[in-house]
Amino acid sequence: MSTLYPEYIDLQPAARAQGTVRLPGSKSISNRILLLAALAQGTTRVIDLLASDDTHVMLGALRALGIEWDETRDESSDGDHTVHTVQGGAGTFPNRSADLFMGNAGTAIRPLTAALAVIGGEYTVHGVPRMHERPIGDLVDALNDVGAKIDYTGNPGYPPLHIHAGQFAQTRLAVRGDVSSQFLTALLMVAPLMARTHDITIDVVGELISKPYIEITLNLMRRFGVVVEQDGWQAFTIRAGQQYQSPGTIHVEGDASSASYFLAAGAISGGPVRVEGVGRQSIQGDVRFAEALAAMGATITMGDNWIEASADAPLKAIDMDFNHIPDAAMTIAVAALYANGTTTLRNIASWRVKETDRIAAMATELRKVGAMVEEGPDYLTVTPPAQIGAAAIDTYDDHRMAMCFSLASLNGELRNGNTMRINDPKCVAKTFPEYFSAFAAIAK
């Protein structure tokens, strides 16, 4: 990543946000496509892959596993696009031993761990210190129960891992659904490799959270030629003999989670702000963030590939279940600073095991700007102050904390001469390296 970041950024109070933002590619779609392209037969051209820390570690891991890829640029009538050409391994990796550094990328380490376990070999998988605090035990247990050989080399239940060749004969496996949907995503993506001679059924134990992310997984698997049969959200069956086939060319949509900051800016400060790259045709559940803004009183308009937010009155407080869009929900917690009344975010327990403990981090930083906050195991309530106070916001090496709190500089709320300081802004490189430039372009 080429962007250079200072130790902190001081954001001046902005009276209004308006304009148009072209979104970077979706992180969730980018890393899923990279692994599917690596496992597929044939060569896949990936258009507009997200350029970020999380995709960088996935591309590095694939190269270490012997998957060849290259990157070129394509200047067409509708703008400048990146093209990643990935040579598929047809269900295997050429290198059967590797030491893989996965940073703090959950979308990379979890599906790749499953793929390595099923393909077999001698692999070590590790990341930054925070990654070694993010649970992976439910996925490892599900795989080891059916013949994988995965050892913990640090704390049980967490990376780092040592993966050996296993033996898979079972037709059913089970995984918990209430900690992270990425565990089910990982098993779904590797199920065709296990289902060469017999059908495989994956049972979900408990409530499945973040269902829209599973819908992304199933949609992309179909694009690569594998169909999954569903029994509601409790069981998923992959029929024997299916193999991933390259779709030839595949486009990465804009990141709907990243869209939330700009849409919220339009709602907070009048707007209009338009994002391009997601819209009515998006396969990402986070486009439903727009419904939460509408509930707060914003005006939302949408096309096939764009969404626009504006408002002509102060926002209203809401009480809403955000289990389906946990990442984008963080933006609502900061938008609540501009709402009349107490906003309640419910069913967000998964925040506790993300890049940081996001419930604790969000509560701490919201209090710094004057909000009254109550935090529980799976909820957060936010009552705004009479006036937002200037503060130095700590970001906990969490990209979403930095991006969310940029919004606290809007509406000219800060007293003259005061700024909103965002510490360690380089954390945005995880998903959106150019975020602060894009935000400055709309915050007037």
Q: Which features does this protein show?
A:
4-stranded mixed beta sheet, about 450 residues, about 25% strand, UDP-n-acetylglucosamine1-carboxyvinyl-transferase, Chain, 25 strands, alpha/beta
Quick overview of this protein structure:
This protein has twelve helices and 25 strands.
Q: Can you describe this structure?
A:
There is one protein chain. It is globular and about 65 Å long. It has 444 residues and is an alpha/beta fold. It starts with 7 loop residues before the first strand and ends with a helix. It has a four-stranded mixed beta sheet. A four-stranded mixed beta sheet has the order 4-5-3-14. A four-stranded mixed beta sheet has the order 6-7-9-8. Helix 3 (106-119) runs parallel beside helix 5. The chain is built from twelve helices and 25 strands. It has two domains: 8-19 and 254-261 and 318-442, UDP-n-acetylglucosamine1-carboxyvinyl-transferase, Chain (Alpha-beta prism); 27-251, Alpha-beta prism (UDP-n-acetylglucosamine1-carboxyvinyl-transferase, Chain), CATH 3.65.10.10. The model has no long low-confidence stretch (mean pLDDT 96).
List the helices and strands and how they pair.
Blueprint: E1 8-11, E2 19-22, H1 27-39, E3 43-47, H2 53-64, E4 69-76, E5 79-87, E6 97-101, H3 106-119, E7 122-126, H4 137-144, E8 149-152, E9 161-164, E10 172-176, H5 181-194, E11 200-205, H6 211-223, E12 228-231, E13 235-238, E14 249-251, H7 256-269, E15 273-276, H8 289-295, E16 299-302, E17 306-310, E18 315-316, E19 319-321, H9 326-335, E20 339-340, E21 343-346, H10 358-368, E22 372-375, E23 379-383, E24 392-393, H11 399-406, E25 420-423, H12 435-442
Parallel strand pairs: 2-15, 3-14, 6-7, 10-11, 18-20, 19-21, 24-25
Antiparallel strand pairs: 1-25, 3-5, 4-5, 7-9, 8-9, 11-13, 12-13, 15-17, 16-17, 21-23, 22-23
